[in-house]
Design a protein that fits this description.
Distance between the termini: 41 Å
Structural class: mainly alpha
Strand content: under 5%
Largest sheet: none
Radius of gyration: 16 Å
Number of helices: 4
C-alpha cells in the first residue's frame, strides 16, 4: 500500500487531471506515463551533459538538440498551463513519435 508523501503526490496529480476534465482512469495513467517518459529522457540527457562537462567534452549521443531544449521536462514544466499543454500536445508528442520511429528504423 502506498502511504505518506508519495500517496499525497499521486493524489494531487490525480486531482489535477480530474479538475482538468480527465476522469477516465486509463486516460490518466496513459497521460501520466507520457510525462514520466519525457521526464526520464530529460534526466538521461542531463546526466550525459554533466558527464561531458566533467571531462570537458561535448555531450555524446544527446537526446535533445539545442533547438529542442524547450521540449525538455525541466524547461516546459515551468511554462504557464496553456503553453505547457500546447508544447506537450504538439511538440513533445511529435518528438516521442520521432524517437520511437528512430528505434524502429522507420521514418515518422
Amino acid at each position: 500500500m502506498i502511504t505518506g508523501e508519495i500517496k499525497s503526490k499521486v493524489d494531487r496529480i490525480w486531482t489535477t487531471f480530474w479538475t482538468g476534465g480527465i476522469s477516465n482512469p486509463l486516460t490518466v495513467i496513459e497521460q501520466f506515463s507520457y510525462l514520466i517518459f519525457i521526464k526520464r529522457l530529460d534526466d538521461i540527457h542531463t546526466a550525459k551533459e554533466r558527464q561531458a562537462n566533467k571531462f570537458g567534452h561535448s555531450t555524446k549521443d544527446p537526446i535533445f538538440t539545442p533547438e529542442q531544449n524547450k521540449l525538455r521536462w525541466s524547461h516546459f514544466r515551468q511554462f504557464a498551463p496553456e503553453k505547457m499543454f500546447e508544447t506537450v500536445s504538439t511538440d513533445v508528442f511529435k518528438l516521442i513519435k520521432e524517437l520511437f520511429g528512430a528505434l524502429q528504423g522507420t521514418a515518422v
